[in-house]
Amino acid sequence: MVATKMGPGVPLKERLNKALLEFSGKLAGVRSGALVQVWMPEQSADGTVVLSAQGLPFAIAGVGDLLALFRCVSVRYRFSTDPEKPALMGAVGRVYATHEVRS
Length: 103
Description:
By secondary structure, this protein is α+β, with helices and mostly antiparallel strands. The protein is built from three helices and five strands, in the order αββββαβα. β2 (40-43) and β3 form a beta hairpin.
């Protein structure tokens, strides 16, 4: 976890930007590259909760061409958070629903 010097009155997006900026500085020496992106829940048009990365902060460190392409593609996806629809959850939705990196 990255410690930031911002209080709770600062908007979440601004706090995430600052945290990712600090974190990406620590990844600067990564030779293979790294992508860090935020996925947040939002309510879709049909009322279900989905996870989206669109419009949210991200950081790319190291060799970034393929990672930048992956980021461009990933913001088009929405992942379900409903465990009763596992085919729509993807890895992002499974981690969100189970609070476990692998399930």
